[in-house]
TrEMBL record, chain A:
SUPFAM superfamilies registered for this protein in UniProt: CO dehydrogenase flavoprotein C-terminal domain-like, FAD-binding/transporter-associated domain-like
Record InterPro entries: CO_DH_flav_C (IPR005107), CO_DH_flav_C_dom_sf (IPR036683), Diverse_Substr_Oxidored (IPR051312), FAD-bd_PCMH (IPR016166), FAD-bd_PCMH-like_sf (IPR036318), FAD-bd_PCMH_sub1 (IPR016167), FAD-bd_PCMH_sub2 (IPR016169), Mopterin_DH_FAD-bd (IPR002346)
Signal peptide feature range: none
Official protein name in the record: Xanthine dehydrogenase family protein subunit M
One function term, GO molecular function aspect: FAD binding
UniProt entry keywords in alphabetical sequence: FAD, Flavoprotein
Flavoprotein as UniProt keyword: yes
Domain FAD-binding PCMH-type: 1-223
Provenance organism: Methylobacterium oryzihabitans
Alphabetical list of PANTHER family matching this protein: ALDEHYDE OXIDOREDUCTASE FAD-BINDING SUBUNIT PAOB (PTHR42659:SF5), XANTHINE DEHYDROGENASE SUBUNIT C-RELATED (PTHR42659)
From TrEMBL, chain B:
GO terms under cellular component: periplasmic space
Name of this protein: 2Fe-2S iron-sulfur cluster binding domain-containing protein
PANTHER family reported for this sequence: ALDEHYDE OXIDOREDUCTASE IRON-SULFUR-BINDING SUBUNIT PAOA, OXIDOREDUCTASE, IRON-SULPHUR BINDING SUBUNIT-RELATED-RELATED
CDD domains to which the protein is assigned, alphabetical: fer2
An MF annotation (GO) of this entry: 2 iron, 2 sulfur cluster binding
Keyword tags: 2Fe-2S, Iron, Iron-sulfur, Metal-binding, Oxidoreductase
Every 2Fe-2S ferredoxin-type domain range: 13-89
Automatic annotation (TrEMBL), chain C:
Domain Aldehyde oxidase/xanthine dehydrogenase a/b hammerhead: 32-138
Entry protein name: Xanthine dehydrogenase family protein molybdopterin-binding subunit
UniProt GO molecular function: iron ion binding; oxidoreductase activity
InterPro entries the UniProt entry points to: Ald_Oxase/Xan_DH_a/b (IPR000674), Ald_Oxase/Xan_DH_a/b_sf (IPR036856), Ald_Oxase/xanthine_DH-like (IPR016208), AldOxase/xan_DH_MoCoBD1 (IPR008274), AldOxase/xan_DH_MoCoBD2 (IPR046867), AldOxase/xan_DH_Mopterin-bd_sf (IPR037165), PaoC-like (IPR049648)
SMART domains named in the record: Ald_Xan_dh_C
NCBIfam families: peri_hyde_PaoC
Length: 316, 179, 737
C-alpha cells in the first residue's frame, strides 16, 4: 500500500472539490473493496477523502411513490428498510445474498455499485491485465475462466461484474444520481452505469474524476413477485456463478436480469419479453452472441435452469 | 514507484477511539488498518488476522455495536468510534454468556477463528433483534426468528477450518434460547 | 517406559477422569482472545521489526538479478534480504525444498526476498519496489500431461509409505470375475487453509535464537531450523504454546521461520514474519492431486476376488508420493491384489502431508468404487462392505488386527442413520425441488506409534505440573494430558497445570498423523508411573499395591495424603514411551463408517448436506468432547473435499490461481448441518498403555466419499472427479422447463 494522505470530508461539495483538485485522490466510504485493492497496489490513491460521515445515508420516499437511497446507506440498512423489504423484495434478497453480514455493514450503496471485478488475473499483479495496466493484455483468456463472463465480453477482457445488488437494481430500473465537480447534478440510468469492456476495459463506469454518487433512486414499486436466486459452489460467502433477478407479474410478463455472467448486470429487454414462452426462450435470446470458454460454457444452461427454478417458485 | 520513495512521513493521522470502554489516542501511519491498530499498536491481539483480505472473518470486531471486518477498514476511518473486541466482551474470570457457551459446547478447536466467531455471534443476536434480514429469511416482512438455517447463514462470514460449525451453531442457539 | 507387551489392567482403566467429556482447560484463554499465538508475543518481544516475504513470480527457473536499491531506500526499511545473497538453506525434515537462498526457483511464490522494516506498512510498501529478473523455464504442472512420464514407486514397507503389493493373479481373477469394475477417479490438489497463517517471531540474544512459531512438532521445526541456520540445536529455543490449526501444513518448517530468524539477525532486532495469506497455497505445501484407477472383481455373492488400485500423482523432484493406495492394503479382503503407485514431476508447491495423507484421497476414490460395485452387484453398499471385511492383514494373514470393529461401525451407523429408509434406486426420492439421497463409506487410517516424553512434578501445594513439547493445534492436548496426569495421580483435573510447546521440555511425538493424543498421553503415563513409584517410596508403600485417588495414596488399610510425599520439596519424574514390535505383530488401525444425506437442487445442481453421521472405532476415547470435535471437524473437511475444495492450476504459468481464502472455498457454516458422531468402546491394549488410538484423521477418511455416494443416490449421476461441483451434474440432471 502506497502512502497516502487522509481527510474526512466536511460536505459533499468539499469532498468533490478535494478529489477533483488533487491528482490521485479518491473517495473512500466503506472501503471494503478499495482498501483490499490498495493492499495489492492495484489501486494506489495518493489521497483519500473519507465521505462516510456526509449526510448521504438516508433512505426516503419520493413523491412519485419511488424510493431514494442515499449513496452511503449501507447494504444492511437498505436490506432492512421496511419499504425495501415490502415493495422491492428483489433488492433486499439480492443484497443479503451478497458478501457477509460484516461486509454488508460496511459496504455502501454507491461503493457496492462501483466495486471492481473479481477476476483472479486482475489480482495477479505479476501477470498482464488490461484493467490494471491498459494495453498489457488479458491473462484470463486461455487461463482459468470458470468464474468469468460469458457474454458482453471483449477480446480484451472477460471479467464479470461480481455484484448482486446491482442485478436487482437493474430489474428495478434504478437511477444513479451524482454531483459533479462543477456542482451540476446528473442522473444515470442503471443500465448505462456499468460499461462493457470493449477495447477500454479499464473504464468501468461513466463517472468523471471527482464525480460523486449521491443516491440511487427507484421508481414506483413494480409489484409482482420478486425473486433473486444466486448459484454458487458453497452455500454462502461466495460470488455468484450465476444469479438471476426476476420481477414476475401475474400475467406471466416480467423483468429478468442475470448476474455473474457478464461485465455488467445482464438484462436484455427483448429477451425478457419472451418470459411467457419460458426460460429457454429467454436465455437463448439473452445470451445471443455469447462467447463462453470451455471453462464457463456451463453458465448458460445454468442460467436457464436457475431462471426455470425462479419461475417455478414464482408460479407456486 | 517513485512516489513511495519520496513519500517520507506523509500520511500520518491521529485517531481517537474508545476501545473496550477505554479512550485511546493513537498517532498512526494512515495505512494502518483497524486490525493492525488493535493488534500491533494497542496489543489487543484477541482480534485475529487470518487473511487480511476480508475472506475469513477472524478479524471481526464490533464498531458502534455493529460487526465489521477490521482488516478492511482503516484505523483513520474510526476516529471517534466505539470499538468492542473480544477482550471487551469478557475475561477468563468473567466470561460473556457466548464465551461460556462456546466452552460448554466445545465450539472451537485451535481457537484462532474463535474471537471472530464470538464477536459475530454477539452481533448476530442483535441483528436478529433489529429485524435485519438474511439470505435464509423466509418472509421478509415477518419478524426474524433465529432458527438453525438463519443462524448458519448469518455466521457464514466466519470460517472455521477446524470445522466446529456444528458445535458453534449449538452454542449460539443455546445463548439465543436463553435470552 | 518401553511398551512391548499388550497392556494389562492399569490405573487409566478406572476412567474416573480419562474418558470423560471434560471441557478444555485452555478454553477460557481461547474464547477471550488471551491465548497468545506466534505473531502476538508482545509479552516476550517489546519492539519487533516486521518482515514481508516476496514470492517468485515464475514457477521454474532462476533469479538472475534483484534490484533492491529502491526498496532499501524506502521509508522505514531496515534490511532487504535477497535470495541471491544467501546460500541455499538445506532442506528441513520431511521436505525436499530449499526455503530460501540461491538462485534456483522450483515453484511459484517461492520466497526470493524478505523486506524488514520498522512497521508492517513500511515493509509491505517497500516490497513492491523490488525489481526481480528471472530466467524462466517451462513448468511441468499438468498432472494428466505428466502422468505418462511418471516413474514407478518402489516398495518401502511401513505404515506411512506407499506400497507396491502384488498378491495372487489379479488379471486372471478379473478376467474370471462375473462382476467387475474398472474406473478412473481424480482427486484435486488441496490446501490446508488453517486459520492462522504460518508465523514466527524471532529474537537473537548472545548468538542464541528464540522463536515463537506455529509448529505441529516442536523438535522437527527446531532441528530443521537449526540445520538451516548452521546453529547447534541447543542454541535454538522454540515456543509454540498455541497453534492456529495445522492439518499438516505446520508439520515441517516453512519460510516464515527461516526468514524471521535471518531477518532478525540482519537488523539486530527481533523480527516477526507471517506468511501472507495469498502466498500460502503456492509457497507452502499441498495435498497432491491424484489420478487413480481402480479395478474390482467379485463373485455374484459380492465377495471381492480382486482389487487393483493404482495411483499417480506429481511432485517436485525428490519429494514423496501421496500414498493413496495405502488404505487399500488393509481395508478389504480379496485373494488377488495389485497395488501400485507412480510419481510424476510437477513444478508446483511441494506435495506433502495434509490430514490423513494417503488415506483421505485414496478412500475418496476407493469408497466410490465400492459403491459402484455394490450397485453393479445389486447388493446394499453397507452389506457389501461387511461381506468383504478382513480380520487379518491380507498380505500376511498370520498378522491380525489388534482391534477391528468396522462391521460394528457400519451396522450401528446404518441403524442410527435410518439407512433402511434409503431407496436404492438412484434419483427416486424427491423433497420439493430437491433430489435426496443417502450415501455410506468406510473409513480406515493406520495408528502410528511414536516415542514421546513428558515431565511431571508434584508441587509442595499438591498441584501437578506437566511439561512436554507436545503441541495443541486445537486437538485438545492440554486437556487430555491434564486428564491423564489427574487419573494417574488421583487428583482432580483442576489440580493439574499443563505447559506445552516449549523446546526446553521433554520431546514429545507432536501433532500429526493422528499420532499425537495416544503417544503424548502414553509418554505422560510413563512419567506418572515413575512419579507414582517415587511417591510410594517416599510414603513407604509398595507401588504394586497402591491406589492413587482423591488426593490420597492408599494401600490396603493405610492411607496418606499425596501432598505428604512432596513435603520436603517438589518431586519430579521424567520419562518417555518407546515401543517394541507390537505394531509389526498386529495391524493397528482406526475405523469408521460415514453416512451422509445430501439434497441436490433438481434445477441448478446446488448440493446441501442435510445430515451426517460418523461411527468411529479408535480405541479408548480419552475425552469424548474433544474427540467429537476432532471428528466433526474432519467430517466438515470431508464435505469440503467432496463438494468444493480444489486448487486450480494455471498450466501456462505453473501456479495455483485460487491462492487465497476467497478463491479456495472451504465449507462455511451454511454448508454444515448438525453432525452426529458415535464412538465405539473398544480400548486397544496393543496400542499403548492408554489403550487409545488416533482420532484426528479417521473422521476425514471416507467422509467425502459418503457425500459423493449420496449425491449419486440422489441423482443417479456418478461423478468420479472431485470436487463434485454443480457444473459436473448439470447436463445429466432432470430436464426442467
Amino acid at each position: 500500500m502506497r502512502p497516502f494522505t487522509y481527510e474526512r470530508a466536511a460536505s459533499a461539495e468539499a469532498a468533490v472539490a478535494a478529489v477533483a483538485s488533487r491528482p490521485g485522490a479518491r473517495f473512500i466510504a466503506g472501503g471494503t473493496n478499495l482498501l483490499d485493492l490498495m493492499k495489492f497496489q492495484i489501486e494506489t490513491p495518493a489521497h483519500l477523502v473519507d465521505i462516510r460521515h456526509l449526510p448521504l445515508r438516508g433512505i426516503e420516499d419520493l413523491p412519485d411513490g419511488g424510493l431514494r437511497i442515499g449513496a452511503l446507506a449501507t447494504n444492511t440498512e437498505v436490506a432492512a428498510h421496511p419499504r425495501v423489504k415490502r415493495e422491492y423484495g428483489v433488492l433486499a434478497r439480492a443484497i443479503v445474498a451478497g458478501a457477509t453480514g460484516q461486509l454488508r455493514n460496511k459496504a455502501t450503496t454507491a461503493g457496492n455499485l462501483l466495486q471492481r471485478n473479481r477476476c483472479p488475473y486482475f489480482y495477479e499483479t505479476s501477470l498482464p491485465c488490461n484493467k490494471r495496466q491498459p494495453g498489457s493484455g488479458c491473462s484470463a483468456l486461455g487461463g482459468v475462466t470458470r468464474s468469468l463472463a460469458v457474454v458482453g465480453t471483449s477480446p480484451h477482457c472477460i471479467a464479470q461484474n461480481p455484484g448482486d445488488m446491482a442485478v436487482a437494481l437493474r430489474v428495478l430500473d434504478a437511477t444513479v444520481e451524482t454531483v459533479r465537480p462543477d456542482g451540476s447534478q446528473r442522473r444515470i440510468a442503471i443500465g448505462d452505469f456499468h460499461l462493457l469492456p470493449g477495447d477500454r476495459p479499464e473504464i468501468e463506469h461513466p463517472l468523471a474524476p471527482g464525480e460523486l454518487v449521491t443516491a440511487v433512486t427507484l421508481p414506483r414499486p413494480p409489484g409482482g413477485t420478486h425473486r433473486y436466486h444466486k448459484v454458487r459452489d458453497r452455500a454462502s460467502y461466495a460470488f455468484a456463478i450465476v444469479s438471476v433477478a426476476v420481477v414476475l407479474q401475474e400475467d406471466g410478463t416480467g423483468r429478468v436480469a442475470f448476474g455473474g455472467v457478464a461485465p455488467r448486470p445482464w438484462r436484455v429487454e427483448d429477451a425478457e419479453a419472451l418470459l411467457p414462452s419460458g426460460p429457454a426462450a429467454v436465455v437463448a435470446a439473452a445470451f445471443q452472441g455469447a462467447t463462453p470458454t470451455a471453462g464457463n460454457a456451463f453458465k448458460i444452461p445454468l442460467a436457464e435452469r436457475a431462471l426455470a427454478l425462479v419461475l417455478s417458485e414464482g408460479r407456486a | 514507484m517513485a512516489r513511495a520513495q519520496a513519500a517520507g512521513t506523509m500520511g500520518s493521522v491521529v485517531v481517537a477511539l474508545t476501545v473496550n470502554d477505554e479512550r485511546r489516542r493513537l498517532d498512526l501511519d494512515s495505512r494502518v488498518t483497524l486490525l493492525d491498530a488493535l493488534r500491533e499498536h494497542l496489543h489487543l491481539t484477541g482480534t485475529k488476522k487470518g487473511c487480511d483480505h476480508g475472506h475469513c472473518g477472524a478479524c471481526t470486531v464490533l464498531v458502534n455495536g455493529v460487526r465489521i471486518n477490521a482488516c478492511l477498514s482503516l484505523a483513520a476511518m474510526h476516529d471517534g468510534d466505539v470499538v468492542t473486541t473480544i477482550e471487551g466482551l469478557g475475561r477468563p474470570d468473567r466470561l460473556h454468556p457466548v464465551q461460556a457457551a462456546f466452552i460448554a459446547h466445545d465450539a472451537f478447536q485451535c481457537g484462532y477463528c474463535t474471537p471472530g466467531q464470538i464477536c459475530s455471534a454477539v452481533a448476530v443476536l442483535a441483528e436478529v433483534e433489529a429485524g435485519v434480514p438474511s439470505h435464509a429469511t423466509g418472509d421478509l416482512t415477518a419478524p426474524v426468528t433465529l432458527d438453525t438455517s438463519e443462524l448458519r447463514e448469518r455466521m457464514s462470514a466466519n470460517i472455521c477450518r477446524c470445522g466446529a460449525y456444528s458445535n458453534i451453531a449449538e452454542a449460539v442457539a443455546d445463548v439465543a434460547g436463553r435470552s | 517406559m518401553h511398551f512391548d507387551t499388550s497392556a494389562g489392567r492399569n490405573p487409566i482403566d478406572a476412567q474416573t477422569i480419562v474418558g470423560r467429556p471434560h471441557r478444555r482447560i485452555d478454553g477460557a484463554l481461547k474464547v477471550t482472545g488471551t491465548a497468545p499465538y506466534a505473531y502476538e508475543r508482545h509479552d516476550a518481544v517489546a519492539d519487533p521489526t516486521y518482515g514481508w516475504i516476496v514470492g517468485a513470480s515464475i514457477a521454474r527457473g532462476r533469479v538472475t538479478r534483484i534490484d533492491a536499491a529502491a526498496a532499501r531506500a524506502a521509508p522505514g526499511v531496515l534490511a532487504v534480504l535477497t535470495t541471491l545473497e544467501y546460500d541455499a538453506a538445506p532442506p528441513g525434515f520431511r521436505t525436499t525444498l530449499t526455503l530460501f537462498g540461491g538462485a534456483e526457483v522450483r515453484h511459484y511464490h517461492q520466497a526470493v526476498a524478505l523486506v524488514v522494516a520498522g512497521t508492517f506498512e513500511e515493509a509491505r510498501a517497500a516490497a513492491h519496489l523490488l525489481r526481480i529478473d528471472y530466467d524462466s523455464e517451462p513448468a511441468r504442472c499438468d498432472l494428466a500431461a505428466e502422468a505418462p512420464k511418471s516413474e514407478p514407486i518402489a516398495d518401502r514397507d511401513g505404515p506411512d509409505y506407499p506400497v507396491v503389493d502384488r498378491i495372487g493373479d489379479v488379471e486372471a481373477a478379473l478376467a474370471a470375475a462375473p462382476v467387475t469394475l474398472d474406473e478412473s477417479y481424480g482427486t484435486p490438489d488441496q490446501t490446508h487453509a488453517m486459520m492462522e497463517p504460518h508465523a514466527t517471531t524471532a529474537a537473537w540474544r548472545d548468538g542464541k535464537l528464540t522463536i515463537w512459531t506455529s509448529a505441529q512438532v516442536v523438535s522437527w521445526h527446531r532441528n530443521s531450523l537449526a540445520q538451516a541456520l548452521g546453529l547447534a540445536k541447543e542454541d535454538l529455543r522454540l515456543e509454540a504454546p498455541f497453534i492456529g490449526g495445522g492439518f499438516g501444513s505446520k508439520l515441517i518448517m516453512r519460510s516464515d521461520a527461516l526468514l524471521a530468524a535471518l531477518g532478525a539477525k540482519a537488523v539486530g532486532r527481533p523480527c516477526k514474519v507471517a506468511l501472507q495469506r495469498p502466498l500460502i497455497a503456492n509457497n507452502g505445501t499441498r495435498r497432491a492431486g491424484t489420478i487413480q484407477r481402480i479395478r474390482l472383481g467379485a463373485d455374484r455373492d459380492g465377495r471381492l476376488t480382486a482389487i487393483a488400485h493404482h495411483s499417480v500423482n506429481g511432485n517436485l523432484p525428490g519429494a514423496f508420493a501421496e500414498a493413496a493406495v495405502a488404505p487399500t492394503r488393509l481395508i478389504y479382503a480379496a485373494p488377488n491384489r495389485d497395488l501400485s503407485m507412480r510419481l510424476a514431476t510437477l513444478d508446483l508447491a511441494e506435495g506433502n502431508d495434509m490430514r490423513a495423507p494417503g488415506e483421505a484421497p485414496g478412500l475418496m476414490a476407493l469408497e466410490i468404487a465400492m459403491d459402484e460395485m455394490a450397485e453393479r452387484l445389486g447388493i446394499d453398499p453397507v452389506a457389501f462392505r461387511i461381506r468383504n471385511d478382513t480380520q487379518v492383514d491380507p498380505r500376511r494373514p498370520q498378522r491380525r488386527f489388534s482391534e477391528r470393529h468396522l462391521i460394528e461401525c457400519l451396522e450401528l451407523g446404518a441403524d442410527r442413520f435410518g439407512w433402511a429408509r434409503r431407496n436404492p434406486v438412484p434419483g427416486s426420492v424427491s423433497d420439493g425441488r430437491w433430489l435426496v439421497g443417502m450415501g455410506v463409506a468406510a473409513g480406515f487410517r493406520q495408528n502410528l506409534l511414536m516415542p514421546s516424553g513428558a515431565r511431571v512434578r508434584l508441587e509442595q501445594d499438591g498441584r501437578l505440573s506437566v511439561e512436554t513439547d507436545m503441541t495443541d493445534i486445537g486437538t485438545g492436548s492440554y486437556t487430555i494430558l491434564a486428564q491423564t496426569a489427574a487419573e494417574m495421580m488421583g487428583v482432580p483435573i483442576e489440580a493439574v497445570t499443563v505447559r506445552l510447546g516449549d523446546s526446553d521440555y521433554p520431546e514429545a511425538a507432536g501433532s500429526g498423523g493422528q499420532f499425537g493424543a495416544n503417544n503424548a498421553t502414553s509418554g505422560l503415563y510413563a512419567a506418572c508411573t515413575t512419579l507414582r513409584a517415587t511417591v510410594a517410596a517416599r510414603l513407604g508403600f509398595d507401588v504394586e499395591d497402591v491406589v492413587f485417588a482423591d488426593g490420597m495414596v492408599t494401600a490396603g488399610r493405610r492411607s496418606a495424603p499425596l501432598l505428604d510425599a512432596a513435603k520436603d520439596g517438589p518431586l519430579t519424574a521424567e520419562d518417555r514411551i518407546t515401543y517394541g514390535d507390537l505394531d509389526k505383530e498386529f495391524v493397528q488401525a482406526t475405523f469408521g463408517a460415514q453416512f451422509a444425506e445430501v439434497a441436490v437442487d433438481r434445477f441448478t445442481g446446488e448440493m446441501r448436506v442435510r445430515r451426517m453421521l460418523a461411527v468411529i472405532d479408535a480405541g479408548r476415547v480419552l475425552n469424548p468432547l474433544t474427540a467429537r470435535s476432532q471428528v466433526i471437524g474432519a467430517m466438515t473437511m470431508g464435505v469440503g473435499s467432496a463438494l468444493m475444495e480444489a486448487l486450480v492450476v494455471d498450466t501456462r504459468h505453473g501456479f495455483f490461481i485460487n491462492h487465497d481464502l476467497g478463491g479456495y472455498e472451504v465449507p462455511v457454516h451454511a454448508d454444515i448441518p448438525h453432525l452426529d458422531v458415535v464412538f465405539l468402546d473398544h480400548p486397544d491394549p496393543v496400542s499403548s498403555p492408554m489403550k487409545a488410538k488416533g482420532i484426528g484423521e479417521i473422521g476425514l477418511c471416507g467422509a467425502a466419499a459418503a457425500v459423493a455416494n449420496a449425491v449419486h443416490n440422489a441423482t443417479g449421476i456418478r461423478v468420479r472427479d472431485y470436487p463434485i461441483t454443480l457444473d459436473k451434474l448439470l447436463d445429466r440432471l432432470p430436464r426442467v422447463a
